[in-house]
From TrEMBL:
Organism (species): Labrys okinawensis
Protein's name in the database: Stage II sporulation protein M
Coiled coil regions in record: none
Signal sequence, start to end: none
Keyword Transmembrane in annotation: yes
Record keywords: Membrane, Transmembrane, Transmembrane helix
Transmembrane segments: 104-126, 169-192, 199-217, 229-251, 272-290, 302-321
Xref: Pfam families: SpoIIM
Length: 332
């Protein structure tokens, strides 16, 4: 069948659908009448049927591309959400994210315990034998803060002067966000392997923190180090724990799918895990901003502890109470 023959009798409907879709995209759903609004799903299904036939009889590629683009645009208009990006993000952070976190209570406790175990183990190992530090912490991350580092050098890092707006809030904060988000997403993504790699990643990240604490403890700088870590660590480590908890949610539904098949259980509960992981990545963006610039702007240990306490309270209130008991849903 030639393209011209195929188009005859169908093209009028395609053009009408394209006109309606274009009007909605430019001026909103109110730009079409009630009759046109009722007709749009019929025109969309007709165009979708034409695309299916066109693919089976291998017509010219230009026509295929046109129908594919038209049906995709029409799908978003007919079945897409009727909310703006800002409204969607607002709903996510006001209701979706905190609610998903509250539902993952015991997963978060397990993730927290895994990281706490790593911190304790890292501290004990390095404090008993300093050379463990080199085995635990990569050279690039250590930055010279190893067993041979002097107390003066460690102190100079803890209280280093501010590098300026560009270096602190743009360059360094962006670097931190990229690296931290990659590790966090990995701990979520490997949850399908029964959660074992997720727990190992949490323990390993804890080992690194514990190793740094031990090195500073040996130089009499433990309190200053905890203050230096806490100012961003409340948000950053919290995000790592949440991503790990999201991975454990996935692991649970694979190991214990209940009355559903494993794929069905993942389809039902995977959204909760994804919401937690996405929200945790947003937390890492905030943590990168704090670590990249605010940590060195606030160069007094007591102030750092105060800032960390405030962030801990704010996150606690947010997760415990934000959107609690409310039934909110995005309008379809």
């Amino acid at each position: 069948m030639r393209s011209a023959e195929f188009r005859r009798g169908r093209e009028e409907g395609w053009r009408e659908l394209e006109d309606l879709v274009t009007r909605v995209e430019k001026r909103g759903i109110k730009s079409v009448s009630a009759d046109e609004l009722q007709k749009m799903p019929l025109l969309y299904r007709s165009a979708l049927s034409s695309l299916s036939v066109a693919r089976s009889i291998a017509l010219d590629r230009n026509l295929l591309r046109y129908l594919e683009a038209l049906t995709l645009r029409a799908y978003l208009v007919v079945y897409g959400p009727r909310t703006s990006l800002i409204a969607g993000l607002s709903h996510f952070f006001r209701y979706g994210f905190p609610d998903a976190v509250r539902k993952a209570g015991w997963h978060i406790l397990i993730a927290f315990a895994a990281m706490a175990l790593g911190i304790a183990a890292g501290f004990v190992l390095v404090n008993s034998e300093a050379e463990w530090f080199n085995a635990i912490v990569p050279d690039g991350l250590a930055g010279g803060r190893g067993p041979s580092a002097s107390a003066e050098y460690l102190r100079s890092v803890l209280f280093a002067p501010w590098d300026g707006f560009k270096e602190s809030f743009i360059v360094f904060a962006n670097y931190l966000f990229q690296n931290n988000s990659m590790v966090a997403i990995l701990s979520f993504g490997v949850g399908f392997m029964a959660g074992v790699p997720t727990l190992l990643l949490l323990v390993y990240n804890g080992l690194i923190v514990g190793a740094f604490l031990a090195i500073h403890y040996q130089r009499g700088l433990l309190v200053d180090c905890i203050g230096w870590l806490s100012i961003h660590g409340v948000t950053e480590l919290g995000a790592f724990i949440l991503c790990g908890a999201a991975g454990l949610v996935v692991a649970e539904k694979i190991i214990f799918p209940g009355r559903y098949s494993r794929l069905e259980a993942l389809a039902i509960h995977g959204k909760q895990a994804a919401i937690i992981a996405c929200g945790a990545v947003a937390m890492l963006f905030i943590a990168g901003f704090i670590e990249g610039g605010l940590r060195q702007l606030i160069n007094v240990t007591s102030w750092r502890f105060a800032f960390a306490a405030v962030t801990a309270v704010l996150w606690g209130v947010y997760f415990l109470y934000c959107g609690k008991g409310a039934q909110h849903a995005l309008s379809a």
